[in-house]
Amino acid sequence: MFRNYITIGLRNLVKNKVYTFINISGLAIGLACFILIALYIRDETGYDTGYANADNIYRINTHVDVNGVSNNYPTAHYPAAFDMVQDYPEAVNATTLYRMFYLSNVLPKVRYGEAQFEESKFFLADSSFFTVFDFDFKYGNAAKAFENTNSVVLTEAMSKKYFGDTNPLGKLLQLQDTVALKVTGVLQPRKGKSHLEFDFLAHAKPLLNQLIGFRVDNAYVGLWYYSYVVLQPGSSPAALEAKLPAFVKKYYPPRYTENNAKLTVQNIKDIHLHSNFSTGDMSVNGNIQYVYTLGSIAVLVLIIACINFMNLSIARFSNRGKEVGVRKVMGAERQNLIFQFLGESILIAMMSGLVSLALVRLAMPLFNRLASVQLDPMAIIAPQNLLAIVVIVLFTGLLAGLYPSLVMAAFHPVKVLKGLHKAANQKMSLRKVLVIAQFTVSLILLIGTLVISQQLSFMRSKDMGFDKDQVMMIPVGGTTMARDFPAFKNKLKQLEAVASVTHVSHNLGQETLPYLPMIVEGKEDEQMLPIMSVGYDFVETFNIDVVSGRFFDQGHNSDSTLAFVINESAARALNWTDPIGRKMSYGVGGSPNSQVIGVVKDFNFDPLRNKVGPLVMYFSPVQGNVAVKVKPGSYQQTIASVEKAWGEQITDKPFSFYFLEEGLAETYAAEENLANVFKYFCGLAIFVASLGLFALASFSAERRMKEIGVRKVLGASEAGLVALLYKEFLVLILISFVIASPLAYYFFDQWLNEFAYRINIGVVPYLIAVVFITFIALITVGYQSISAARRNPVKVLRSE
C-alpha cells in the first residue's frame, strides 16, 4: 500500500509539472532562507560557550553618568575584581587583562632577531588568568606559564610568525626594544569563538606599573582593565550585583561615586550579543537586535513559503475531489486518504529540502559578505545541524499538508462526484486568509527595507558640523611622525593640490571618544569629559566655526601646553556663560594654569548614533591621524605626491590612508549589511509569494471558467473579465496593507529609536510598498486572467 501511495504521489507531481515546480522551488527558497539564518544565529550565540566554567565566569562592567549622559564601559579599575573576591564569599577567583597602550593608537613593537612587527593584540595578564580560562597548550602548560614575571604565552599563529615550526619555549622576545620576555607557552587554536582576542599574553606586573606610572594593585584610577570574577556554582549574579553599590561607596573615589558610578556583572556568554559600550571593547561585538531581526525574517520567509505550499495544496487537492469520491466509494478509509495526501506533502517537502541544501551552499558566500560573518560551508553537514534540518523539513511538510489532507479526507462521495464541493464560495475562505497573511508579511518586509534605506541615506547625507569631503586620513601610530610632522607638513603644503594639513587623535565621527578626569573651575569634584587632541589648522581643515575666543595658534607658545578649546555643549554642561579664560586641567598631573581659550560650534565627533555632547580639545604632538584636505582634481596624482612625501620622511612604516567620507560610511557597515540582507530576503519573499499567486490565479481562473464563458456569451468584454478576476486579489492586497501598516510602523519605529538622529516614518514607504505589491500582483494575476478571458466560450461551455 505504501508503495502505491508513493506511485500515485509521483504521478500527480509529474502530471502537474508547473504546480510541482512552483511548490518545490517556493518551499526550497523559504527553507534555504531559514536554514541560512539559523546557521548564522547558531554561530552568533555560540561565543564563549567552550570554556569549562563558562556559566560561572562574569566580566565586571562600569557605568558612569557624565554630565547627564550615561556611559558604559566593558572595563573596571584594576583592584575591583580582587577586592570582590576578598569581600564576597560567592566570588572565588579573579583575573584581569590590560591591552598595551589602551585607548591609544600606538601599537607595541615585538622583535625576535631581525623580525619586528607591530602587534595590536598584545595583552598583559595576571598569574591567575589560566585558572579562570582553560586553554590547551601546544608547548608548555598552564601551571608553569606564569610562574615568573616577564614571561609571555603566544598563540600558535604568532609562534609560527616569529619562530617557524620550532618549539619556542625559553626563547626571548623584545618588547619595545626595552623589555625581554621569555616564551613559556604556545596555545593550541581554540575550538569555537570567543570575545577574548589576543595574540600575546605577557605576565609582567612590573611592566604594567611602569606603563601606568604607579602601582596599580590598590589604585582605583583608570577604567583600563578587562576584569573577570568566577562565582561559586549556583551563586546568583543578581545577588552579587545588589551588593555592589556598597562596594562602590567603599572603594571608589568621589569623581565616580558622585557621578552615579555603578558596577554590573555580565556572564561571558552574553558579552558578544549583549554589549553596548561607549568605548574600548576587546573585540567586535554582535548585536542581539540583528539576531532577532534576521531570525524574524527567516521565520517570516518560511511562513510565506508554507502559506504558499498550503494554499496550492488546498487548490490542487480540491481539483481531485472526484478521485477522493471514487476512492471512498471503493472502500478507502478516511485515515488512508489523510495518509496519502499528507505523504504527498511530505514528499514535496523532502524534495524541497534537498534543493534548499544546494541553495544554502551556493548562497553562503554571498550571505557571509552581506552579514559580515564567516559561516563554515561544512556546517550544513554537521550531524546535529543535519538532524535539525531534517526535522524542520519534515515538520514543514507535515504542517503545510495537514489541513488540506483533513479537508480532502472529509469530502462526501456523493457531493464530490457531482462537483458540489466546488460550489462553496464563502466571502472569506481559508485560502483568502492565507493569501492575506502572505501579502502582509511581504509588505512588512518591503516597508522595512525602504525605512532602513531611508535612515542610511539620511545618515550618509546629514551635516555632521564639519567638512568631510576630500579629506585624506593617514594613520600614524607607531611611526616617528610626532618628531617629523613639521617637515612632513611643509612638504605637503608645497603641493598645489593640498589645501590644509593638521592632525587629530580621534577617528572623527567613527568611534566614541574616551572620557578622562578633568578639574574645572567652579566644580569641586573632577569631571569626566571626552577629550581629543588636535593640531594647528584643525578648524581650517574641517571648516569648523569658532563661536568665541580663538583656536590653537602657533604664534602663542602657551597654546601647546596650557590651553583648551571646548565645544558649545561643554560650556552648557559646565554652566559657563563666559567660558573664555576659565581654568581647566587634567585630573592627574595637569597644570593649574591651563585655561579655555576658545569655544567651537558643536559638531558630531562621535558616530551619529550618539547625540553631540561635551568635548574638550587640547594641542599635542601628532597622535592618531594626519588629516590632509585636498583640492578637487586629479586625486591619483595627489595621492602619489603625498605618498612620496611620506616615503621621504617616514621609513619605518608603509604609507596607508583612507578618505574620511569612506570611513564615515563604513561606520554604519552593520546597518548597511542589515539593509542589504533585508533587500535580498524581501525580494525572495515577494518572489515566493508571486509564484504562489501565479498558481492560485491559474486555479482560480480554471474553476471559474464556466462563469467566464457564460459572461462572454452575455456580452462581457475581455477587459471587464480581467478586472473581475483581478478584483478578488486586489481586495486581499488592500486588507493586507491595512494589517501590515501599523505592524511595520511599530517594529521599525522601535529600530529607529536606537539612533540619536533619525528620520520620521512618512507615508512614502507605505505608498511605494503597496503600489509595488499591487503591480507585482497585476503582472502575476494578469497573465492568467487574460488567458482565461480570451478562451472560446463555446469550447468552455461544451466541456462543462
Short recap of the structure:
With 800 residues, the protein is of the alpha+beta class. It is globular. Residues 20-245, 442-639 form the MacB-like periplasmic core domain.
Please give the count of helices.
25
Overall shape: it is globular
| Strand composition percent | 15-25%
User: What helical percentage do the residues reach?
Assistant: 40-55%
- Mean pLDDT across residues: 83
Count of separate structural domains: 3
Described by its quaternary structure, the protein is single chain
Biggest β-sheet description: 13 strands, mixed
Task: Find the count of extended strands (DSSP E, 2+ residues).
Answer: 24
Spans of at least 5 consecutive residues with low confidence: 423-428
| Helix/strand class | alpha+beta
Radius of gyration: 34 Å
Distance between the termini: 34 Å
Secondary structure: elements and pairs:
Layout: H1 2-15, H2 17-44, E1 57-66, E2 69-73, H3 80-87, E3 91-99, E4 109-112, E5 115-118, E6 122-125, H4 129-132, E7 137-139, H5 142-145, E8 151-155, H6 156-163, E9 172-175, E10 179-187, E11 200-203, H7 205-212, E12 226-231, H8 237-251, H9 254-257, E13 262-267, H10 288-318, H11 321-329, H12 334-371, H13 383-409, H14 413-417, H15 430-461, E14 471-475, H16 481-493, E15 498-504, E16 515-520, E17 527-534, H17 538-542, E18 546-549, E19 563-567, H18 568-573, E20 584-586, E21 595-600, E22 616-619, E23 625-630, H19 635-649, E24 658-659, H20 660-667, H21 669-703, H22 705-713, H23 718-752, H24 764-789, H25 793-799
Parallel strand pairs: 6-11, 8-10, 17-22, 19-21
Antiparallel strand pairs: 1-2, 1-12, 1-13, 3-6, 3-12, 4-5, 4-9, 7-10, 8-11, 9-10, 14-23, 14-24, 15-23, 16-17, 16-20, 18-21, 19-22
Helix pairs in contact: 1-12, 2-10, 2-12, 2-21, 10-13, 10-15, 10-21, 12-13, 12-21, 15-21, 15-23, 15-24, 16-19, 21-24, 22-25, 23-24
